[in-house]
Every structure is written in structure tokens, then in C-alpha cells.
Amino acid sequence: MKLSQHYTRTSVYATLTVLVIGAVIYYFAINYIGTQQLDRALQQQLTEAEEYIRSNDGNPQLYDLDRDHAVFVKTNRQLLLKRFFDTTYFNPKEQRSEAGRAVEDLVKQKDSNYKVVITVSRAGQKNLIELISIITLALLAGLLAVLFVINKYMLNGLWKPFQLTLNEIKQFNIADVDQFKGKPSKVDEFTELNEAIREMSLRVTHDYLNLKQFTENASHEMMTPLAVVTTKLDTLIQDETLSAEQLGQIADIYSSVNKSSRLNQSLLLLAKLENKLVTEEEPISLETVIETKILQFQELIEKKELTIRHTLYPRQIVASKYLVDILLNNLFSNAIRHNLPGGFITIDLNFDQLSIKNTGAANTLNGPQIFERFQKGKDSQGAGLGLTLVKNICQLYGYTIHYEYETGWHKFVFTF
Q1: Tens of pLDDT along 212-249?
Q2: Does the keyword Kinase apply (predicted)?
Q3: What average pLDDT does the structure give for the chain?
Q4: Is-contact 307 345, C-beta < 8 A?
């Protein structure tokens, strides 16, 4: 979820909570004020009724409260606590019952005591409170709508410089000549962010160029003496005066030198893959490349008496032919080298997947670990970088690769 959506949700929830609580408090406050006004009106009418009764010796029931209800009941009680309470008021004009407010007290007339109950309608107050509540809810809904619109559109405009900066960061390539520039913004925080990213990109690019130059120089310096050693070994091998033991030792040295050379080339290729420096791409018919690769490894397959079966459907990809060749070389080499004498290799290619499986040792490999650098089996003669190269090539083109074990079969599956 985007930051603006988080902010909108939080602000709407917070505002809604505050407004609802405020509306409830406002409702009870208005209701309390209205009740107090009715109580003051009832108190005034009660005072008028007491003055009327005390100044007139007539029947208290003749007291007219002008549409209000006044009930006088003769009582022997000498003391009655005055109280205000909610009750039901009968409206004689409308001929219906409605909400009312009443006061009850004791009124004395000479030697007689009367309990008086005066009731007034509070329908007008109730309607006023309902009207105020409706207006409040309408204002609440309008405020939430305005808040939502402001957060959705105005904040999106406010965050636009950040989105532009983020897109530029995503497109930033450490090997490009163009450096991060950042989009100008009137917001100080975004300007400061752009400056920090610009400085960081300059440091990273500078470090990368230094490392790239060092790696290239180191590789060149390593390849030169290795080439010299290889040339000298070729000359020594051709010397007919050497004994069989000496030739064996030279062959071991020759093998080690070649392994060092391959290791150096593999590490350089890994560095290029991790920094996305291999950019040449072309359409490749994968089924044709696989068929060619089978012919290239035919001698090794026959030497180990392996049977290869394949089902290849047309599948075209866009990639570097050099990298695809390295990927298939590593997979075919592993399938042949770690196979059993007289074993099988099965290759299946369809539009979605490529799977290469071979018979081998009856034990499963550690799936995630085998793709890490310098991870290899006990009997492996390689440098432990083959499957790492395969994984990085797949990552470069957005493919996924995983390892499966099926009762004596070791299987690598690519998903395009």
C-alpha cells in the first residue's frame, strides 16, 4: 500500500473518530441545554401556579396553564421533594401522545396540601435536536468527502516529485555515463533527498569505476603470466627427453593453470552479470541451440554410454547468445559429469519451461545451496561457479530456476 493511501486511511479514521465522538458530545450537550431550558420554564410555571393558589381560595384545578397540563392532587403529605422528570405529554390539538417534561412539587393552600404535576411538550425541542443532528451529520459527511478529495488528489500532486525521484532511482544504472540528477521540488525534504541520493550515486559510481578498473587490470595481469606458463608447458610437453613421471607432473601443472584461467574468466563474468554489463541481446531459437549443443557433447555422451532423450517444441527468447551458450554448457557438463555409466539424460522444452534431468547418485542435493559460489560435490573437479553463473544468467533475464530430486533423477527446471 502506498504512503499516500496509508496517510489517507489514517487521517480519515482519526478525523471520523474525533468527529463522531464530538458529535455524540455535541448531541448530549444540546440535549442537556434544551432540558435545562424546559426545566426553567417549568419552574416559572410552578411558581406562577403556587402564587395563584396562595392568592386565590378557589379550586386549584381552575388554574389555566395555556395548553400545558397541570394536575393537582390533594394529599396528606407534609413534605414532597421537588423533581423534574421525563414523561409522556398528550397533545389535545393533535390528539396524540408525545415526549414531555414534567415537574412535581407540593403546594400548600391554607390547611390543604396539593401535589402538583405540570407537564409540557418537548416535541419542539426534540425536532430542533434532530435538525441539529442532521445538519451535523451532513457537515461530517461533507468534511470527510473534502478530506478524501484533498488527500487523493492534492497529496498525489504533493508526492509527484518523490515518485519522479523514485522512478529515476529505479532506472539508475551504475555503468551509465549519465548520473542521477533528481527532479526539482519546492518541498525542502524532497530537495534534501535528491541531494543525498545524488551524492550517494556519485560515490557509488566512483567506487564502481575504481573497482572495475582494478578488476580489469588484475584480470589482465593474471592472464598474462598464465598465458606465458601455458606456452612454456606446451613447449615442455613436446620435449622427448622427459620421463613419464615428469610428463605427469607437467600435465598436473597444465591442468591447474587451465583451471585458474577458467576460474578467472568465470569470476569476471559473474561481476559483469551482477552489474548488468552484458547488454547485447538477439532473438534465439532455443530448440535449435539445444540440438546444436547435443551434437557438440555427442562424443562425451557416447564415451560414457549415455542415452539422451529430448522433446523440443519451438521457443524463441531474446537474450545474449554468449550467455545462453554458457548456461547450456554448464548444464550439459553437469548432466554428463555427474551421471552414471550407461545412464540417461532427458530434455523437455515447451513454451513455459525447460527441464534437464539426468540419472545420478541416489541422494538429493541442497537445492538453494548448490547455486551459491564455490559450492560443489566431493567428486567435482570444477571451480564451483557453474550453477552460480546459471542462476545469475536466469536472474538477468527474469527467469526462475529450481532443483528437484525424483528417485535417482536430478532435475533442473527453468520457468520463462
Answers
A1: 676 666 666 666 776 777 777 777 777 777 777 777 77
A2: yes
A3: 77
A4: yes
The grid coordinates of residue 312 equal 523440443
State how far Cα 236 lies from the chain centre. 63
Structural fold of domain 282-415: Heat Shock Protein 90 (3.30.565)
Q: Show the CA angle centred on residue 268, arms to residues 266 and 270, nearest 5°.
A: 70
Residues 6+ apart with CB under 8 A from 98: 88, 89, 90, 91, 121, 122, 123
Please report which residue ranges of 154-243 form alpha helices under DSSP H. 155-158, 160-171, 188-237
Q: Is the alpha carbon torsion for 184, 185, 188, 189 positive or negative?
A: negative
Buried/exposed code over 93-126 (b: 16+ C-beta within 10 A; e: otherwise): eeeeeeebbbbbbbbebeeebbebbbbbbbeebe
Percent over 90 (pLDDT), the chain:
2
- How far apart CA 105 and CA 72 sit, in angstroms, is 10
Cα angle at 165 between 162 and 168, to 5 degrees?
Answer: 150
Confidence class for position 348, pLDDT limits 50, 70, 90: very high
What is the Cα–Cα distance from 43 to 64, expressed in whole angstroms? Answer: 16
Q: What are phi and psi of 304, to 5 degrees?
A: -95, 5
Amino acid identity of residue 112, one-letter, is S
- Reduce the DSSP state of residue 80 to 3 states and report it: coil
- Average confidence (pLDDT) over 22-40: 81
Residue 278: all three cell numbers together: 552484458
CA distance 216 to 336: 33
What is the 8-class DSSP label of residue 153? I
Residue bearing cell 576460474: 263
As a whole number of angstroms, the distance between CA 211 and CA 268 comes to: 12
Can you name the CATH fold of 3-154? Beta-Lactamase (3.30.450)
- d(CA 165, CA 186) in angstroms, rounded, equals 14
Which string of b and e fits 58-78 if b means at least 16 CB within 10 Å? eebeebeeeebbbebeeeeee
